[in-house]
Design goal:
Blueprint lengths: L3 E9 L3 E6 L2 E6 L2 H5 L6 E10 L5 E6 L2 H13 L5 H11 L3 H9 L3 H6 L5 H11 L8 H5 L2 H14 L4 H14 L5 H12 L4
Parallel strand pairs: 3-5
Antiparallel strand pairs: 1-2, 1-4, 2-3, 4-5
Amino acid sequence: MIASLRGAVQSVGEESAVIEAGGVGYEVFLCGPDRASLAEGQELFLLVSESASMYGGPVLYGFLSAERKELFELFREAVPNTGAKKALEYLGKAVRSLPEFRAAAAARDIKLLTGMFGFTAKTAEKIVDALKHKLPAVPAAAAAGGDGENYTRAAGALSGLGFRSSEVRSALDEVRREGGASSAEELVRKALRKLSGGL
């Protein structure tokens, strides 16, 4: 059983990447944000989880950190009707901010899970029910320094202006990466500039 891989990125596809280690190319599936961060020729170390495919061969899932792998396993084992690919999809949403996701799930903050992370209300309910005894009960606002609440308020305001939720999350995530927005109002103002093409 493969537990980890250290090697170079040979290629990056729509769902997976090929990692060359020891002269062998391994196809490894990663969550969207982690896969998007890879570049051909990049050297990296991945923790790996294996799953059997319907055709009998192993499928490899890769993670850039132990925390990511742990959360993937939690999704797969604890959330009802969640296979490996669905768990990887959930992880791709949670890695927007793992501390805030953990805090929101532990605090049963459905609003934050849907507004900031993009889960449907039904999926958010499933996640908090499954993980309520497996994550520390830390208030989301405390873990995020209030930022999670600001994000949710800003997302709600922008959605109310008619922007699609995917556009809103993309613009707000970009604003957060750039920094300098300490209130919901500032988040909205800066995100609006991006949603309006920088005008």
